[in-house]
Amino acid sequence: MAGIIEDPKFVKEFQRIASQYGLDKNSFSWSKDKDSLIYLVSSSKLTIYPNVFDVFSLVILESLVCGTPASPLYIRSSRILMNTHRIPFVSIIICTYNRKKLLKSCLNSIYAQDYQKSNFEVIVVDGGSTDGTKELCREFPNIRFITESKHGLAHARNKGAELAKGAIIAYTDDDCIVDKNWLKNLIAGFRFSQKKIVGVGGPVHPLRPEIIPKKIHVKAALGLYDEGNRIKLVDGIITSNAAFKKEIFKNIKFDETLGVTRRGKLILCGEDTAFCQAIINSGYKLLYTPHAKVYHQINNERTKIPYVVKHALHRGITKTKIFLNQKQSRTWAIRYATSQLAQCLLKIPFDTSFTSCYNIIYSISTLCISLTGLDRIL
């Protein structure tokens, strides 16, 4: 241990981390910031000693920041302190409808979490499935199965939040498989240095990337999300991989005029975008961590051009609804859509990908819906 402590490369790396996150003698507190630093240490891509991701590393970081000695006795007492620290109770909410097979894979991954089983519950909000979904859920412990007659993802997510017992509410989708450290890494984000963080999200990768044609790899249409390999504040996260403090639902809820029903002809998504925007507008923060990973089981239909085009058209309806629900004028929405379309068209000589085509269709749809007022009846 002493050799690692004295290694100048190791010391330099932790000094860099401490400096990056603004930790100094005046701001650092072992009792208040321990969990934030655990997350910081475990999340940082250390290439010198990649296996030193424990409280030992944490104590070294504290000694660098505060100037205190990292004695063996202090290291042992720190391990005990970490093991006895209270782990928050989390409510994991999954919305589903007649997707028993997909849901089973999702639940298997959730119950394989490296997180104390007594510290989370699973709430399955079902839209009236007839494929044995309810019977499936009885095979798993600590599941609360709720049947909702009112359809729509936004309503189902609000209902789950209403019934949740946890201080933290985590969301994923029934067609997703979560990484074994998913919950642990999401929760760690709330103990980061930003006190106003009320939501933490991570990337959504394709489970089988080989089935997606490279020419039509449009993340929005495929339900994918990736903000890179660094922890950072963001304007929005995706609800197939997100967690929020329950207290936020007292004032902010998912917009139930949006959301996919999975049984209608319209793909009115965007309830997560509107929800995150409302959070930001209220002065709170959202954190992105690349370490809380989720994998999306994309069905073959979503990899076809007709679906991607349909998604772009219907996303224009959603965008217009979001604008107007946020008290923006129709004139403002028209100006925004016109500006976005102009930017997309100007990019054509430099970007001939299908994503560029998708964005043009999306912008045209937003403009047409804003001009005609069709959002009132759709």
What does the secondary structure layout of this molecule look like, with pairings?
Blueprint: H1 2-6, H2 8-20, H3 30-43, H4 55-66, H5 72-83, E1 90-96, H6 100-110, E2 120-126, H7 133-137, E3 143-147, H8 153-163, E4 168-172, E5 176-178, H9 182-189, E6 197-201, E7 204-206, H10 219-222, E8 232-234, E9 241-245, H11 271-281, E10 285-288, E11 294-296, H12 305-325, H13 330-347, H14 354-372
Helix pairs in contact: 2-4, 3-4, 12-14, 13-14
Describe the structure.
This protein has 378 residues and is an alpha/beta fold. It folds into 3 domains: 2-83, no CATH class; 90-303, Spore Coat Polysaccharide Biosynthesis Protein SpsA, Chain A; 305-376. Helices cover 43% and strands 13% of the residues. It is built from 14 helices and 11 strands. The protein has an 8-stranded mixed β-sheet with strand order 3-2-1-4-9-6-10-8, sandwiched between helices. The longest helix is centred in the last third of the chain and has 21 residues, at 305-325. It is globular, with a radius of gyration of 23 Å. The N and C termini lie far apart (65 Å).
**Uncertain spans, ≥5 residues at pLDDT below 50?**
1-6, 21-85
First CA to last CA: what distance? 65 Å
Strand ordering within the main sheet: 3-2-1-4-9-6-10-8
Helices, by number, come to 14
The largest sheet is:
8 strands, mixed
As an assembly, this protein is: single chain
Shape: globular
CATH topology of the largest domain: Spore Coat Polysaccharide Biosynthesis Protein SpsA, Chain A
The SSE string, one letter per element, is: HHHHHEHEHEHEEHEEHEEHEEHHH
Count of discrete domains: 3
